[in-house]
Automatic annotation (TrEMBL):
Residues 30-257 form the Alginate lyase domain. Residues 336-543 form the Heparinase II/III-like C-terminal domain. Keywords: Lyase, Periplasm, Signal. It comes from Shewanella saliphila. It is found in: Periplasm. The keyword Cytoplasm does not apply. This is Alginate lyase.
Amino acid sequence: MQKAITEQGAFQDAFKAKLNQVDIGLNQSIEVPLPQDGGGGYTHEKHKRNYQQMYDTGIIYQLTGDKKYAEYVKNMLLQYAALYPELPVHPKRKNSNAGKLFWQGLNEAVWLVHTIQAYDFIYPALTQTERNTIESGAIIPVALFLSEQSPHTFNKVHNHGTWATAAVGMTGYVLNKPLWVERALYDLDLAKKGGFMRQLDELFSPDGYYNEGPYYQRYALMPFVTFAKAIEQNEPQRKIFEYRDGIILKAINTTAALSYNKLLFPLNDAIKSKGIDTIELVNGVAIAYGLNADPTLLDIAKQQNTILLTGDGLKVAQGLDQQLQQPFAFNSELYRDGKQGAEGALVVMRNGKPTDQALVYKATAQGLGHGHFDKLTWQFYDQGNEIVSDYGAARFLNIEAKSGGGYLPENTSWAKQTIAHNTLVVDETSHFNGKVKQANKHHPTIHFYDQQQNLTLASASIDSAYDDVAFKRTFALVNIPQREAVIVVDILSATSSQSHQYDLPVHYQGQLIDTNFDREASLTQLSTLGSDNGYQHLWLLATANLSQDQPRDSLARVTWLNDNGRFYSHSTLVSTNTGKHQQMLFTQLGANDPNMNLRQQTAFIYRVEASDHTFVSVLEPHGEYNPAKEFTIGATSNIAALTHHQQAELSAVHIRFKDGEQYLLAINHHEQALTEQNQSVININGVQYPFNGRAQLLGPLNTGSFN
């Protein structure tokens, strides 16, 4: 590394940039203020900047040997050693996991993870007296506060526990306290009921999926990979990166894979602006590449555009200098959830290039306290943009003016509620009645996942989200090369012993263009859609009553224009001759929001009153709008009609396009595994359609009759 900073290349460039930043800090007076602010406040942010500054300055000392950098870190640590022993619990403490320097112990652990490394960097430049003062005043008290004085958090299988165990375990290595390392690995009593190893066992599925979702997987990744690297450096015989079939390396790859156009999929309590360039994943990718030299990780590193001043960072820089990167595999995948991989799954269906169509089907477990009540929901992306969207979290991270930077009240009243997601809502109540403890006991059942050329599909169900309603949902991402078209087919069947109000919302990004049915709009006064469970936050903009002859062709079609200049039509099959009361409701978010915390997003909701009902829909990207060149192409849907057929375990969606071309998506829902050679035959109006395997797109069909 010391040699590399003298040679041209990405590592030298990163060093020069960091050196300039650190030198600016050296010219500023050290400030270690008395803690008084919550997240986003001045003292909170100052202590965050301090630990980062100590870490960066310590690295520069390691690379240059110039003692002025060690002196700066030493002086700041001495101020912390004088401050910390006298601190009470933080005055703005957020919850039972309170800190002293920060409003929650989580931030205290992050401080120690960085600070213990900074201390280790400058250790050779300190006298024994200085070491004793720093350790007894700051390092040891923080480590004890996070462990012995906070047993509930330290032993918890949760990202807070991960940060705490990483901080204490790394401190144990630096201070030569092997008992601290063992406690960090196996809990305070060494009983293996908590600790870092238990977290590796329980928080990740065998596929490297973290149960709180990609956003918190990204956050938790930092202590996992940093502590694991320390374990590898100090005790390679533990073979930590081989544990659970390489679960840490799997988690790094999975985190990168659960993104689209550089942004992480916003599942559960997610800030939607977080992406693969977050520092936690930068560290993870560098460490992984340092271990396995996977050239596809260099593709992610290049997009991250951040070189770490570490040994692994040097390997990444050299790989990029030599242009060794190969495209990262953004493939269709099923990521099992649960420690045994048996608690549902997250399915990602992709078509073509990384910014082509992608469908995210969330059939996972709850995700603990950060989970949302959104079983069998979905999102859709195209041409780099979010098309069918998930709200993510209601939070302005570290903006103190918005509830101190923490989660807003609307995170509970809106973002977590089922109506905020693209899934079934029964009688205007959320899944599991919005109770986390109840939700954590249940998960969907995955029936199948199948990937073929030009066709990917998955099916899952759940019967515990409501007392007497079960529902099953099957998604297919279908590429029709003959038409240069990609569509999404969505089949959701709800069953119950009694009649219910079924709402199926679609939260879309863009401007409404057209519908094929009449809407009665609220022109001068708005009312809320409901009074609770998130409905109180929706303004009802327009209503359409759907019947046999309206909309036309038994399809309710909604078309909108996204910022990417493409049109999207969502066509839903309307039940005819059933007597079911069916409506399409158009809403906008923002009601009962006195502090205007919520984004003003739009949705349409297909509402049906029935005991049993099957929703069949097709989402179709089409056309182009180019305002610069002033032309519009293909602004209307190409789909003329849909029919749905069910024959025991076989089902089919029959699609007729406006030019007369017809296709049949045939699916075998049988529980037993099917091979490509298994042939099924579905009979539709006297015509037999044989197909192989789990599913097949048949067509163009040689038939003159659609119905």
